[in-house]
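Page 37, continued from 36.
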């Protein structure tokens, strides 16, 4: 069964985007999006944030004047989104849709210039078919932004942490942890999907290529600005992309 974050909504919001990890994620994603999609022109885009939770990026893009449909299976997430939208000084053009992304149809919502699907695929029982169907809502000249949890990075992090039994068990935990993705993906696996879907990967970045591997030392104070600079610098380089905790692809139809 696909994951519903109703019971974890507040924890998710705090742990994911209310943290340094979340700041790194948002900085990498926004850099990639602004470099490869014309988000600051006078043309206002229709954007679908599929499985977008409380709409962290939806709100940022709507502030630029774009029209956003924010869809999530969690009613609690959408309640958080509504609260935050109402707190903005200016009105935001965000339509909240309580539904699974599998239920979205072109007949009801039309087509979009941009589809975002971030940190969703690794919670889906059948990510390949779900994402392929989602692309039916993308315009021929549109852009698909997919961020997924990297299974090889999950293995590497476990190895350098000394969790050898976990690795030998095929990364299957005896006890499920709430925010640990259930269906992580390999980069090669997702690359093959994009090829089959005739999507050119115009951008590929690792997300958290450094932070998650840093070892704490007594009395060491981390220079957060320098860490952020290094994350952005190395996120586009190999072998660092391959060990990014998440990987971000932007695809456009060939």
């Amino acid at each position: 069964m696909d994951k519903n974050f109703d019971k974890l909504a507040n924890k998710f919001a705090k742990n994911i985007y209310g943290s340094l990890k979340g700041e790194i994620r948002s900085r990498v994603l926004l850099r990639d999006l602004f470099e490869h999609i014309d988000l600051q022109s006078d043309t206002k885009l229709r954007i679908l944030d599929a499985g977008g939770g409380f709409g962290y990026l939806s709100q940022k893009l709507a502030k630029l004047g774009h029209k956003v449909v924010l869809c999530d299976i969690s009613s609690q997430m959408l309640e958080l989104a509504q609260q935050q939208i109402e707190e903005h000084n200016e009105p935001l053009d965000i339509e909240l849709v309580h539904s699974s992304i599998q239920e979205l149809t072109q007949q009801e919502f039309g087509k979009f210039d941009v589809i975002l699907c971030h940190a969703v695929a690794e919670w889906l029982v059948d990510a390949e078919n779900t994402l392929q169907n989602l692309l039916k809502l993308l315009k021929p000249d549109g852009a698909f932004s997919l961020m997924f949890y990297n299974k090889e990075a999950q293995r590497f992090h476990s190895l350098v942490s000394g969790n050898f039994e976990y690795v030998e068990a095929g990364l299957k935990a005896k006890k499920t942890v709430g925010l640990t993705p259930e269906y992580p993906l390999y980069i090669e696996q997702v690359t093959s999907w994009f090829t089959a879907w005739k999507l050119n990967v115009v951008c590929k970045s690792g997300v958290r290529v450094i932070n998650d591997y840093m070892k704490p030392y007594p009395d060491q104070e981390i220079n957060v600005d320098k860490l952020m600079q290094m994350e952005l610098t190395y996120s586009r380089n190999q072998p660092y992309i391959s060990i990014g905790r998440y990987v971000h692809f932007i695809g456009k139809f060939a």
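The CA atoms of residues 26 and 57 lie 8 Å apart. Flag for discussion at group meeting. The longest helix spans residues 20-36.
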